[in-house]
Design a protein that fits this description.
The protein is 44% helix and 14% strand. The chain contains 8 helices and 7 strands, in the order E-H-E-H-E-H-E-H-E-H-E-H-E-H-H.
C-alpha cells in the first residue's frame, strides 16, 4: 500500500484502532477523514489533529451510507483510500437470547453489511483514481473464534473471506485490497483498554505502519502478536489454541 499522498477515509476513526491509524497516516502528510456515529469522539480527534476532517456516518443504515457516499463523492473527489474499521463486539449467551436477536443483528449490520455497502457505494469513486486502496479490518478471532462473542467472530471471518474475493475481482484494476488482522489490542472494545494482556495500541499502530512501509506489496497485515491465532490452522495447532483461548475466558468469568 502506498502510505503517502493519499486522501483516506477511516470508519470508526474517532477512537481505538481507527483513531490510531488516522493519526499515523495524518502524521505522514495524508489528508485523513474520520467517520463514525459519535460526533463527540470525531470532534475530539480532529481537534487534536489540525487539518484532519470528520463526517458523521451511521454504518448500520443503508440510506445513510448512500447519502454519505454521495456527499463524499461530491465534496472529496480525490478520496482514494477506504479503511473499513468500524465495528462492535458484544458478548452473547446463546442459550438465553431474546427472540429479536438484536445484538447479533446489530453486529452483522455494523461489522459485515456496513463495509460491504460502503465498498459498493464508494468503489466507483475509488476506481476513478490513478491509484486506490481498500483496507478491511478483520481480527485474529476470524481464524480462532472466542466463544463468548460468536457473532463478532463470525462477521470477522466473513470479512476475511469477502476481502479475498474482492481482491481477486479487482486484481486487474488500480484498486489494491488489503486486510489488517489485529490481535487483542488495548481499546474500548469490550473494555480491553485496561487489560494488561492486550497489546498496547501505540505499539500495534507502530508495528502496522512499519509493515506497510517496509512491505508495500503486502496484502495481509499481521503483527507478531496475532500470528498464533492467524496461523493456528496452518500450523496444526487449531484445537489447542481454541481450547486455550476459550478455557482461559471461561476461567476469567468464574
Amino acid at each position: 500500500m502506498k502510505i503517502t499522498g493519499n486522501t483516506i477515509l477511516i470508519t470508526g476513526g474517532g477512537s481505538g484502532i481507527g483513531r490510531g491509524l488516522a493519526e499515523a497516516f495524518h502524521a505522514l502528510g495524508n489528508h485523513v477523514i474520520v467517520a463514525g456515529r459519535r460526533k463527540q469522539a470525531l470532534d475530539q480527534t480532529i481537534a487534536a489533529n489540525p487539518g484532519m476532517a470528520s463526517v458523521t456516518l451511521d454504518i448500520e443504515d443503508p440510506a445513510n451510507i448512500r447519502s454519505f457516499a454521495d456527499h463524499l463523492t461530491k465534496h472529496c473527489p480525490a478520496m482514494n483510500v477506504l479503511i473499513n474499521n468500524a465495528g462492535i463486539m458484544r458478548a452473547e449467551k446463546l442459550q438465553a437470547q431474546q427472540n429479536d436477536l438484536a445484538d447479533a443483528e446489530a453486529i452483522i449490520a455494523t461489522n459485515l453489511l456496513g463495509p460491504i455497502r460502503l465498498i459498493a457505494a464508494l468503489l466507483p469513486l475509488l476506481q476513478k483514481q490513478p491509484y486506490s486502496a481498500i483496507m478491511n479490518v478483520s481480527s485474529g478471532l476470524a481464524f480462532v473464534p472466542m466463544a463468548p462473542t460468536p457473532t463478532y467472530c463470525a462477521t470477522k471471518a466473513a470479512i476475511h473471506s469477502y476481502t479475498q474475493s474482492l481482491r481477486y475481482q479487482l486484481r486487474a484494476s488500480t484498486t489494491e485490497v488489503i486486510e489488517l488482522v489485529p490481535p487483542y489490542v488495548a481499546t474500548d472494545l469490550m473494555n480491553g483498554a485496561s487489560d494488561p494482556r492486550a497489546m498496547p495500541l501505540d505499539k500495534f499502530i507502530a508495528e502496522v505502519m512499519e509493515i506497510l512501509k517496509t512491505q508495500p506489496a503486502a496484502s495481509e497485515i499481521c503483527v507478531e502478536n496475532v500470528k498464533p491465532l492467524r496461523f493456528a490452522a496452518e500450523g496444526g495447532h487449531y484445537d489447542s489454541v481454541f481450547r486455550g483461548l476459550n478455557d482461559r475466558m471461561a476461567n476469567d468469568h468464574r
